[in-house]
Structures
1.
Amino acid sequence: MLNYDTFFIGGKWVDAAGTDTVDVVSPTTGEVIGSVRDATPADMDAAVAAARAAFDNGPWPQMSPNERADIMATISAEITAQFDDFATLISTEMGAPLSFAQMGHVFAATAVLDTYTQLARDFAFEEVRAGMLGPTVVRREPVGVAAAIIPWNVPLFITMLKLAPALASGSTMVVKPAPETPLDAFKLAEILERSGLPAGVVNIVPAGRTTGEHLVRHSDVDKVSFTGSTAAGRKIGAICGEQLKRCTLELGGKSAAIVCDDVDLDAALPQLLPAALMNNGEACVAQTRILAPRGRYDEVRDALADALRNFTVGDPLDPATECGPLVAERQRERVEGYIAKGKAEGATLVVGGGRPAGFDRGFFVEPTLFADVDNSMTIAREEIFGPVLSLIPYDGDDDAIAIANDSDYGLSGSVWTADNGRGLDIARRVRTGTYQVNQLAMDFGAPFGGFKTSGIGRELGPEGLQEYLEDKSIALPFGAEDVLPS
Ligand code: NAD
C-alpha cells in the first residue's frame, strides 16, 4: 500500500488542507493499492502561490538555459536509475502491459526530457534583428506559472510533455495528476525534491475535476496545458478564452489506418496491431478505424481476426501480456456500452465483444473486432478508448482519404503500402496533426497535436517549447550596438 497524506508544494511535503481521501484501485484485481488526499482549492492555492513565488522571485527564470539543462539531466538520470520501479508502478496503477509501460511510458518520458534538455542548451532564447530605426532584440521569455492537467492513460509521459518544455523555458509549474494515477507523480516528486530544482519550481497536487477547474481559473496561473477528453478540453478552453490565458489542448482522436491494396499484410500487421491497440487501446493516437480496400477486405478481416484471437490478455505485470485491464470499472462500462452500440447499429462482431474467460476480477475486456462498419456508425465516430477496432471498406485511394477525413477528430493516422511515395502522397492529404507511413512512430523532435477537435497548440519539438514562451521585441536606437552581446 502506498498512502500519501501530503502534497509536494514549494519543495516540501505539505499536509493536505482536507481529510478526504481518494483510493487508488488496481485495474487488475479491483483492490485498493494506495490512497492520496483529495485536494481542495486551498491546496491548489498553496501550490500556485509557491509556483508564483518561484517565478517572481527567481532564481529559476534568471538561471542560464545551461544551468536549467544540468538540473533536467539530473532528473532524467534519476528516473532512468529507477526505470523498473516506475514501469512496475505505472503498470500496476493503470494496467498497461509492462513492456509498454517500460518503453511507451518511462523510456518515452526520459527521451522527451532529454530532447528538451538538449533544446534548452541549443535554443536561441535571444536574437538580434536589424530593425528600421536600429537593432531589435527579440527575446523568448518564460510564460510564467503554468498549470499541467494530466490524464490517467500515460501519466508520466504526458507529465513530461508539459514539464520538460516548461523547465527548459524557465517557467514554473503546478502539475495536477488524474486521481486514478497519482502514485507515479509522487514518485517523480521524490526525485524532483533532491534534484537541485529550486523550491516551488514544480508542485504536484493530484485532484479531481472541481479542484482542477479551480487551478485553471486561478488568476496567478498564466498558462494551462491540458491533455484529456475533448469534452473537458472545451470547458477548459472556454475558461482560458474568457480570461485570455495561454492554453494548449491535447484532446481525443479517432485515427484511421489506411491499408492499401498493394500492402504486404504479413509485414504490416506486427506494427499496425500495436498502433491500433497500444496501451490496451487507451491511447489518443490509437489507429482504431482500419480502412481496407474492398478487393482485399475479407483477407484483411481474417488476418486481423486471427491476430486478435491470439492477442494475449492477462496480468499487465506478466511479460507475455499484450492487453491488460482497462483503468477502471467506469471505463470498462463505457467500452462495453460502445460494443453494444456497434452491434445495435448493424456492425458485424468478428472477434471478442465480451469479458475474457478466466478473469473473475479486474476490469478486462476482450480485444474486439467489428467488420462491415460504416463510417457514420457511432463506433466509427466516437473515441472508445479501449481495445475495439472498426474495419471499414473503401473503393480507391480518394475514397479512403475521404473516409479518413470524415471525422470530427484530426490527431493521428497511418498508411500501410508497398510504395512509400504513395504513402507520402496520402499522408499529405489527410487532415491530422501527425501521420505515420508504414510504421508505428512518434518523433520527439517534431510537433505533436491535433487538427479540428483533437486540440489546439502543439507539444514536442521546438514548437512545444514555444508554447511556454512569450515573444518580446526590444527596439534599440542606432548606435546602441555596443550594448548588445557579441
Ligand atoms: P478527462 O478529460 O476526463 O480528464 C483528464 C484530466 O483532466 C484529469 O486529470 C481530470 O481530473 C481533469 N479534468 C477533467 N475535467 C476538468 C475540468 N473541467 N477542469 C480541470 N481539470 C479537469 O479525460 P480522461 O478520461 O482522464 O482521459 C482520457 C481522454 O484523454 C481521452 O479522450 C483521450 O483521447 C484523451 N487523451 C488525449 C491525448 C492527446 O495528446 N491528444 C493524450 C492522452 C489522452
2.
Amino acid sequence: MTIFEPIKSTACGCDGAPGAPALMPVCDAVSAALALAAPVTETEEVPLHAALGRCLAAPVLARANLPRFDNAAMDGYALRCADLPGGGDLPVIGSCAAGDAPVSLPPGTAMRIYTGAPIPRGADTVAMQENAVRNGDRVRFAVPPRAGSAIRKTGENRQLGEVMLSPGTRLEAHHLAICASAGAGTVTVRRRLRAALVVTGDELAPAGQELEDGAIWDANSPMLTAFCEQAGVSLVAATRFPDRREVLASALSALSGTVDLIVTSGGVSVGDRDHLGPALKDLGAKVAVCGVAIKPGKPVTVSRLGGSVILSLPGNPVAAFVTWQVLGRPLLDRLAGTDAGPVRRHVRASDLLRHKPGRCEYRPARIVGYDGAGMERIACADHVHSADLAALAQADGLILIPGDCEEVEAGDLLEFLPL
Ligand code: AMP
Ligand code: MG
C-alpha cells in the first residue's frame, strides 16, 4: 500500500510563477473569502427524517449503553462454559430470539439462541450453531466453545452519555443511523442557509425559449440553483438582471441582509459592460477577493455587504463552475458551520499535459484507470475553453495544474478535486 502525505493546502504555485500577474493566489483567495464568512448561529431541533444534509450544532450523545444489554452475536446455543469442560452434550431447554425478554438458564442446560437475543441470566457463552450437533432435545459440540465467545457486551460500543457525533458534522445517511441507534430521535442543527442568485447578462434567455438575434441560453441559473439545492440551501430568489449598474446596485442592496449568501453571475470583469464591480463600489461593499490567479475564473470576486457574503462568479459557464468548486463550496461550508472541508486527493496524469505558466489551472478530468500501485489515472483535454461546457460532460473532477508548471508528464502526480 502506498501512503501519501495529506494535501494541506491548495498548492497552486501561482505566487512563485515567473511573470505571474498581480492576482491573488488561490489559497490566499480561499482564506480571505472564508475570513468574510461566519457560521450562522441560529439553531433548531429537527426530527431525523428532516435532518439529512443539515449541520449538527450540538453533540449527539448515547441515550443508553450500546448495546443496551448483553446479546448474542450469532445464532447458536447459550450455555455456561464450565458445564462443558472437555466437550460433551447438554439438554436444550428452550429458545430465545431478538425481542424476547431475558430469561434464566438453569445450570447444566443450554438454550437455543438467535442473533440479537438477550443472553439468558447465568449463561456466559454462545456456542455457534456451526459447531453444534443437535440430536433431539440435546446438543453436542464438536469443538468445545471458548468462554465468553459470541456475546456482544453491554456498553462495549459506547457507554451511556458518550459522544456519538460532534458539532460540525454534516449529517449523511449513516449519521442518521448512528443517531437513531443511540436513541436520538431529533437533532440540534444550524438553521438552513438562505441564498439568492443574481444573474446578469442582457444576452441571456431561459433554456427552452426561442432566441432573438444575439441571445444565448442561460446555463448558469440552473447550475447554480442545483448547487444550492445539493447543499441544502434555501434559494429565496433567482433572478436575471439587465447589465445596468444602478439596477444591480439596487438589487444587491435589497437582498443584502435578507440572505447569508448572494451568488452573482457575469459582469464581474473589468470591461465597460461589466457593472458588478462598480455596483459593489457604489454600495460600499467590503471586497476581500477581486481577481485570482486561477484559470478559468480570474475575475472572481468575494465581498460582504451588510449581513450577506457576495460571491461574484464570472459569466463564462466553465469559469463559473470552477470558481464555484474552488470558492463557493468552502464558503457554503463555512457559513453552514460544517468542518467538512474539500475532499482532494492525488491522481496520476496518463498523458503529457501542457500549460501556460502564470495562473494555476483547474481542468476538467476523467478517471480512466489505475496505475500499478492502484492510484487513479486521469485524462483531460489539452486545452479547455471557459465557455465550453461540453468539456464537463465526462468529467469526474478537476485537476490542479500549478501556476509555475509548464508541462505535466505522463505519470506525474496531480491534485484532484472530485465533483
Ligand atoms: P461576462 O462574465 O458577463 O463578461 O460573460 C462572459 C461570457 O459568458 C459571455 O460570452 C457571456 O455571454 C457568457 N455568459 C454570461 N452569463 C452566462 C450564463 N448565465 N449562461 C451562459 N453564458 C453566459
Ligand atoms: Mg455579461
3.
Amino acid sequence: MRTYELIQKKRDGGELTAEEIEALLKGYLSGEIPDYQMSALLMAVFFRGMTAQETTALTMAMVRSGETLDLRAIRGTKVDKHSTGGVGDKTSLVLIPLVAAAGVPVAKLSGRGLGHTGGTLDKLESIPGFTTELSAEAFVSQVNRIGCAIAGQAADLVPADKKLYALRDVTATVDSIPLIAASVMSKKIAAGSDAIVLDVKTGSGAFMKTLDGSRNLAKTMVAIGNAAGRRTVAVISDMAQPLGMTVGNALEVREAIETLRDGGPDDLRELCVTLGAQMLVLAGIAVSEEDAKARLERLLSDGEARAKFREMVRAQKGEAPAPSSGVVVAIDAERIGLAAMALGAGRAKKDDVIDPAVGIVLRKKVRDAVREGEVLAAVHAADRRRAGEAVARVQAAYAIGRSAPPAGTLIHEIVT
Ligand code: URA
C-alpha cells in the first residue's frame, strides 16, 4: 500500500500490520516519507489510538532503527527503572545506589529535563566533575565493578524516537498513550536490561493528569515490555504536588543525599523503597515485597546505600590514583597548571572561553604519605575524554618517593 492509503486506513479506524508500521518508519527515517505525511499519520494515531499489537510493532520497529546495548557481560539480572517525569523527582539518585547496595546490578541510561519536568542527567551534572558521558565499555565495566552506573543515552540508540519526538512536539501529538508508550519502551528495550520497573506519575505535575490516563499508559507499557521478553512492572505514583521539598538540580542532589543518610522527606523515601522492592523481586533476590522493603530500609539506615552512592560518584568523577605507595616528594606546579588549562580553566588562545566549573582539587601535598591507589587529586572536567587526559597529566606531575623531603618554605623573603 502507498503511504496515502496507510494514513487513510488509520484515519478510518483500521489496524496497521507490523509490516506496514515497519515500512512507514523506515520510509520516514530514510526521508522517503516527508514530515507532512508522518504528521498526518501521527494525528490519525492520536485520534484513533493503536491496538496492543500495533503499539508493540511500533515499539519494536523503533528499537530496530538503531543500535542496542549489549549488557550480557554484566553478571546477574539487570533491572532498569524509568520515570515518566515529574517535578522534584530525584528518585533515581537514591534508588539506583540503594538497589545496587542490595545486589541488583543497574545499568541506567537517563535523560535530561523535558518541559517542566527535571532530568537525572542534569541533576547529576550539578555534582562538580561528575561525567555522564561513558562509553559502552566503561559503562558495562563500572556496573560489573561497583554494581551501578548512570549515563546519558548514546545518539545511536533509537534514532527513530528523536525524529518522531521532534515532529510530535510541533504537531500537538505528544500526549498520545501509544506514542508515549512506544517512545519510552523502545528506549528501555534498546538499553538492554532483563527487567524494567516503571514509575508512572499521575497528577498536575505529570504528563498524565488523571489516574485513568496514567493507568492506561502503565498497562500499555507493561504489555509492551512483557511482549518484548522483559519482565515489567509499573508503580503509579502521585505527582499532584512536587516530590520531596526541593525542585532544581543541585538542591535535589542535596535532598537525595539526605535521604541516603537515613533522613530526607518521607514521600521520597517511601517511593524509593516501593520502587526498589519491585526491582529486588524482579531480580529474584527477595522472596516478597515485605522482605525487600525491610532490606532496603536497613541499607538506608546502616549507611550502605550512601556508601554505594559515593562509590558511583567517585567512579564517574576523574580521580588520579597514586601509582605506588610512599611519600609525595614533589608536585610539578607548572604541569598541574597546564592540566587545568587543558580542562578549560585557562586560555591556550586569546579568544578561548574559560569554563569556571572545571579544575583540579589536590588531595595530597608534598610530604603526605600515600598508599597505592589512593586519590592524589580529583579532576573536574566537562567530559570523560578531557577528564582522562587530565588524570594522566596530574599523575605525571606527582613524584612519589620512599622518604619525606625536608619541610619546604612558603614565605621565602620579604623585600622592602
Ligand atoms: N517521555 C518520552 O521519553 N517520550 C514521550 O513520548 C513522552 C515522555
